[in-house]
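Batch manifest, entry 17 of 40.
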Amino acid sequence: MVVALAAIVAAIYPSAREYYDRQRAPEVEVARATEIAPTSDGGSAPVPVLVATGYVVARRSSDVGVKTGGRLQALTFEEGTRVRAGQIIARIEHADLDAQLAAASAAVAEAETQLVQATAAHDEDVRQLERQRALSRDGITTVAALTAAESAAAVSAARVKTAEAAIVSARARVHVIEEAQENTNVRAPFDGVVIKKRAEVGETVSPFGVAGQASREGGAIATIADLHELEVQTEVSETSVGKLGRGMPAAVKLQAYPDAEFQGRVREIFPSADRAKAIVEVRVTILKPSADVKPELTASVTFQQPAAARAAASNAGASTTPAAPIVVVSRRAIVQRSGQPAVWVVVDGVAAARNVTLGAERLDQVEVKSGLAPGEAVIINAPDTVQDHGHVRVKGA
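Output type: structure tokens
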């Protein structure tokens, strides 16, 4: 009986021990090593350096306002209307200016008529003066008559100058009223598209805004943007801005179209930081935007290592053998064992330490040049209780 019981215990002990070890095993989170195919030139895909989010904006955008106050008489646009530089997009009522212009034009005509009359009178006075001078040389006329003729000629000459000045003044008045009329026209400052309509016909507008209109708009009636030059306005932490540079390539994705990717390039890193937020504004130009790219869309920008830097890294490790697939793994899977980078590989619930050779970092991932195959499961954020060839419990398994 005792022998039989001992045999049973000996038979079930290994299974029971293994079950007990599994129950006490630490719970871990795993991730799979993934493979990135090399490019045709033997290099890898662009190496991401930093990711930031922002909004699409037009590089040239203007809140177009009025130069003078009044009631809107006509609008020639709606949202989406394409406009040309100098095109009239709105008019303010100007019947009073029309009347003033008519009166000023009549004043010019009257001044021109007065000039003709004054010139004719002056010509007659000059002829009379010449006759009196001729008679004076013959001793026929008197000094008083000659003096009177000279005075009449001088007065008529002054009247000619007065008439000429009146014409200049009247024409200047016409020009002032014409400029005032032109100021009632609102023209597009550049070629673009109306992206926001801010007023309607019949509304009273002012260069300084009116009640009910945001003071920021300052009498704006429309917002016009050049949709041929779009960029992403994003903010980068001041601790990361040193990784960026002008002309750096970037990949832009829109939240509205997550499957589409657009090529971009860093246009500007602002020279001043925001002290309160500890950020620096960065502008990324979208090189070939499609019609789907619209201002104010949310965008994600992945800044990439410049091609020159990637080429230098590739040349440093160049070989004559064909490029092997690139394996990447989460940086959280890398641990240090005896001063060497390693990972915990999990197979059938058992963890095993394995040394690896690392390559370039890719945001939260790192290239593994050797020691790990695509698809293998590795522990991330491994707890201290994990032991080599020890059991582990995988979360979610």
